[in-house]
């Protein structure tokens, strides 16, 4: 009995020490926050290069195992990947920025169109309480302000990114050396890991890679296909800003379940200012593409590598959206998959010990 009480007080003491440390860390954030921002700024190119290496490494290994020397396999995949991205950026960025600036200039026209609609709604709902009308008008003003700020912020962010030519230029070189020396990096990580954790650590990383790697690579490929198809379809029907809207549809497709709805909203709003037929065509294209993605592309390319229940995915999306906004929605599911694998390995270790 005394031993259990002692064990409880030891745990309570540890918890209190952790809470006190967290308190002082938060209080001293003015000291360490600038260093954290500097670290993030310096390490961002390396993180991007590491992510690219993670995406391309399996493809390089596949080509290498088919008989091509490793160095040539790296150069081939590397040239195709960065050559394709470079060509797309070179051709697409000016057009993308031009469409963004045109959209920003056209916002007042869109707002006037929606104001006319709201006036009609206002007249037809004259018997509604005055507070309801005020709330509707406030929502329209907030939406206009949000869209304008988002478009302006995107333009500024893109121009700042283009201005950071050195950062963009150095990422391919970092990724090349990471691909070339990936085995050396694995060996260095192995040597730095304590011996008692090595076998479990390797198995844990393999399980995470098996669950997460296929999902991430497959999802990105599906997003590329859906975004390209959407941009082409919008261009064929004469929709405004086809490249911009195609990128939005493709990018939001990375978010499970809610992504298609988020991607369809901007296209539907713009199409509604053109004509009713354009609205139906645009919404029809988006949902047709999502039907193809959900029933053909994702099962074929992505599969069910995560093995997560839909309710868990939806809950993680709500939590991620509340904490991190759009970025939280994107990273929520991969983080939950990693947490799941972590708990499974901890449970397996406890079972082995006992």
From TrEMBL:
It is found in: Membrane. Keywords: Membrane, Transmembrane, Transmembrane helix. Coiled coil: none annotated. It holds the Pfam family AI-2E_transport. GO terms for biological process: transmembrane transport. It is a multi-pass membrane protein. The keyword Transmembrane applies. GO terms for cellular component: membrane. The chain crosses the membrane at residues 12-32, 38-60, 72-90, 161-179, 220-237, 312-339. InterPro entries: AI-2E-like (IPR002549). Belongs to the autoinducer-2 exporter (AI-2E) (TC 2.A.86) family. This is AI-2E family transporter.
